[in-house]
Amino acid sequence: MNANADKNPFYALKLAQKQISILDDQLLRRKLLHTETPCDTHPIVQGRQLNAFCSNDYLGLANHPQLINSLAEGAKKYGAGSGASHLISGHSVVHDLLEKKLAQFQSKHIPDVRALFFCTGYLANLTAITGLAALNTSGGVSIYSAALNHASLIDGTRLAAAQTKANTHIFDHNNLSQLKHNLQSDPAELKIIAIDGVFSMDGDIAPIKDLLAIAKEYDALLIVDDAHGFGVLGEQGHGLLEMLNVHSSRIIYIGTLGKAAGISGAFICANEFFIEWLVQKGRPYIYSTASPPAIAHALIASLNLIEGEDGKNRRRQLHKLITLWQDEMVFSSWGKISSSMPIQPVILGSNATALEAAKLLDEAGYWIPAIRPPTVPVGSSRLRITFSANHSVDDVQKLMDTLKRVEHQIIGI
Length: 413
Hints:
Layout: H1 11-25, E1 44-45, E2 48-49, E3 51-52, H2 65-78, H3 86-90, H4 93-105, E4 113-118, H5 121-133, E5 141-146, H6 151-164, E6 167-171, H7 177-184, E7 190-196, H8 208-217, E8 220-225, H9 240-244, E9 251-256, E10 266-271, H10 272-281, H11 283-286, H12 293-307, H13 309-328, E11 335-336, E12 343-349, H14 351-363, E13 366-367, E14 370-371, E15 381-386, H15 393-411
Parallel strand pairs: 3-13, 5-6, 5-7, 7-8, 8-9
Antiparallel strand pairs: 1-2, 4-10, 9-10, 11-12, 12-15, 14-15
Helix pairs in contact: 2-12, 4-12, 5-6, 5-10, 13-15, 14-15
């Protein structure tokens, strides 16, 4: 065999090189940066200390000393890894305790609720949509997915369609008339509506009460991915369902534990029969190694913080920062979206403008990456600014001053 046979570019390699070059031409190539310190508001990034307004650590728990101690305690008690999938030998007693605690969070909103813990939110969404679509083994399934849904809901919908031949429909969450029209004439026996609870790039909250009424009227399930609301919304931080005070067995509630909860993983809360079905038939769940039990141990401590006085104080701080931003940040020409969430986008339009703004902010000591397609629609590239309870009022005031200077520098004022 010629040892040098693969030194010259072959077709697949040429194709990869060409496609990367196209991304460069379109200003769409993403780059990895490495942090050298724990997740916080002033991390060291590749040797420089920056003001970070880009993480999803909304409550500032990712570097909380109590959670660090709990994680270490969990590792000493349960070891470093789980060793197998949940259905083989990887399901620890502490996984079970965590699931019971998560179910308790949603017990007022979903009758006969049970929770299922996952390694990631992506796996949870894939499992929910593909598993529930497989309930109707005779076919006749329709999935309605909001246009601005997270990639994991989109991919779950596509995979479910491929596996079950489900019909798929895209709807605008700001105009539900088309959704109702399609449901009225839909002969499918099983209908599933899937939506983000809080849209990650715009920071707006989905019309869950209206969607639940529609789901009841047309006998559909309602999947709510509350990745950005869990821990942030509700008096006790239980999320969107608590804030809206809704109650239904039709709701499949999905929450993420690597954002406001500060650690890692995700979960599905639903009626116990839906959860049992996903345990039996949810392929991403069945065939994934379980998260280390130490993660579950630390998450229980995180949930206690979230619904305790510390969590309430952190949510109050977040609300103060959001109000300050909404009241006082005024741009000359850039678009600011009105949001009551810690996600505060600034719409710039072109990829070039977003990259230039991110570069100038970096030079000023701020870490706020440019968000471009396909994460957001073409022509709506932006800065996605996120607040943490660990930010101070002074941090936000200085950010606003810096953003005004950057805007004026770019538009030539």
